[in-house]
Amino acid sequence: MHHHDQGPHAEGHGHSLVEDMAVMRTLLARRDALKWFAGTGTLALLSGCGNAESSDDVVIVTDVTPTLASTATPTSTSTATTTATTCIADPTETAGPYPADGTNGSSGSTANALTVSGIVRSDIRASFIGTTTVATGTQLTITLTLVDVDVTCAPLANYAVYLWQCDRNGNYSLYSAPTESYLRGVQVTDAAGQVTFTTIVPGCYDGRYPHMHFEVFSSLTAATGGRHAILTSQLAMPAALCNAAYADTTLYPESATRFATISTSSDTVFGDNTAVQVAPQTPTFSGSVADGYTASAVIGITR
């Protein structure tokens, strides 16, 4: 089923229906044809919808003691401690209108943060293009573990993960916050298949359940070279985490009100996924508003 990620202020993009459909057809084609725009650091304020892709296929693997290892590069290794004995393939979701990965453009320009020096970083709270503004909000440190669904949940080393999200007010850097480049970053998985990002709890904007976007690439070179992702998906923020963070209406002025009107089941992206799919898409977490939160999720990859 196709998903439409309605970003903040999407109703003000100023495009006609015909233009929007043309943009969507172009973006939908990117999974079938690698049509990448030149964009070495060229950034533009863009609007329009992202590609609308999803999958309701569920692949489940259960194995208590993984013993197989892949010989492919990047590697799927069973020598590192496997963090999951049951894993499913994460569903493909829309990248939305604000990926800044070189897949959308306007007037011949592209928004591509992946080709800009500085994108490879663990702490993604500060802008790294033009300004050094730090995104404020409740701190969240999230660890993602990539596992190979086809090789008994073995961890996947040397893959690249691009993570991006909105700020506390629901704006995306390089788009609705056009002068900023915060809350975007790339990390490479270690031998345990893990990457860790320090960020903030994303705000809640109209039309969407609070979430983070991510893309998985086969290598760092593939990611920073603007080559096609092998998985584009999203993470749903735990409701308890959102309720705790959004209680501070000074820091998150609109999020509590917006969050009260949305759920994963009514969301345009997570709403048609099964409970089996939504569970791993929702990170587990611990911590507090005062001390910050830590979260983790297992990302199942099929190759």
Give descriptors for this structure:
single chain, four-stranded antiparallel beta sheet, five-stranded mixed beta sheet, 303 residues, alpha+beta
Provide an overview of this structure.
This protein is an alpha+beta fold and 303 residues long. It contains 5 helices and 13 strands. The protein has helices at 17-28, 220-224, 239-246, 255-259, 275-281; strands at 60-62, 86-88, 101-106, 109-112, 139-148, 154-155, 160-164, 184-188, 194-200, 211-217, 231-236, 284-288, 292-301. The strands form 4 sheets. Strands 5, 6, 9, 12 and 13 form a 5-stranded mixed β-sheet that branches. Strands 8-7-10-11 form a 4-stranded antiparallel β-sheet. The longest helix has 12 residues, at 17-28. It is globular and about 45 Å long.
